[in-house]
Amino acid sequence: MRSGLxxxxxxxxxxxxKDITDDDGMVRLTISPVTAMSACPGCGTWSGRIHSxxxxxxxDLPTTGRRVELVLRARRFFCDAVLCGRRVFTERFDPKVxxxxxxxxxxxDQIIHHLGLGLALGGRPAAALARRLMLPVSNDTLLRVVxxxxxPRIVPPTVIGVDDWAWRRNHRYGxxxxxxxxxxxxxLLPDREPATTQAWLEQQPQIRIVARDRASGYALAVSxxxxxxxxxxxxxxxxxxxxxxxxDAVRKSMRQIRTAVGATSIDPALLTAAERLxxxxxxxxxxxxxxxxxxANEGIPIKEIVRRTxxxxxxxxxxxxxxxxxxxRTRESxxxxxxxxxxxxxxxxxxxxxxxxRRLREEGFQGSLRVVTEWATRRRRADQMGAEVLKRTxxxxxxxxxxxxxxxxxxxxxxxxxxxxxxxxxxxxxxxxIIADFxxxxxxxxxxxxxxxxxRASPSMVASFANGIVKDRAAVEEAITxxxxxxxxEGQITKLKLVKRQMYGRGKLDLLQARxxxxx
Length: 520
What we know:
5 domains; five-stranded mixed sheet; 21 helices; 12 strands
């Protein structure tokens, strides 16, 4: 059926509209080129001698809520150049209108490309939107278009940020490189090996500043590829490394801490089922720790200890550093906010766990029955034991947090606990002061305080952290004085994770590059 739509609605550059029909909700246009000649793609010679004609069916942008199909009467020409290997060629059109072998017009292909990588949609979500826009395209086609167009050329950067990102956490990692001046991702590398990063950096000799995390691999790659470039350690990582150093110091001091708070022995009769499992695991770990420590005291190297015990090198190193001394690996419980109310009910004589749970639900508690009944069981056993009440030492992470909080933010029980630890383990207090001074130095950007701080920290419990600062001193000094940091790189990694999770496992490196870099 012929359509009454005006020809001006379907203007196609370089084409003449011969006919418009409306067929079952689809507008079909018959078009033909207006030029009389075409250039041979092999030799470039222009020819006007027609060999034959054929029809090409092309998808175009929709109109008035209906799909549009173009029927192009294309031509084949003879090539009269003597030395050209082509005898017959198909006419070529303006790439901005129609690409060779294309089944979509360039303007439709551009919209599909933006659906695929723009708006952070990707394959399936963009395909659903395309159906609502009356665009005949599938999720696979969207991803193919994004891949085909690839990533645009980048402006050679002079200030970059380098950091790793997880393909799969704790298993496989890649590297992201960010242009800090233009605040956009410019490269994704398949791994975080120093050689891979070094190879990329060697192709960018104009780079003068590199912001990075504390990983030694990136520092080595930059030093080899760009020896004249300035390296800047990331300030957030410095603060985080300092906090972790204090946590390690607490873990090494757990035996002294338990002695200080009077919890050197555990009565299994007071433990709940869950706590008993943790305690039995602690005893097994202690047996392993004793074996490893005995072998180390005999002068046996770590490699041989690993071979004899069958444990991993990382576990052996952790044992020798004294970082595995927690008994109960406690974490924040949903019951913590309701403990004062439970204590009041217990003192009032309400000691049935199920009844307490029902009443606690009315107070807004969202946890399970088992959490309340285990608390009631442990409280009942403690009352039966009288003076032999179990004194549980919190985990190293909780102790580190309590020792770094202000006293006005602690409860009375927490204040007593921290005071006992400070009195019994004074070296831990020194470590806390040293770490606090370091973090204050980073916040104040006070470079003059770095050398005195290193002198104080070297003989302390955070000596390993101080030694790492010494090895990376130039980059740390730049972190204190320079305005550049790796914060923008971390933000780009967050964006990369969002894009990767939208692609339902289809996020291979080329597609990630096209979507993250191409959409930047």
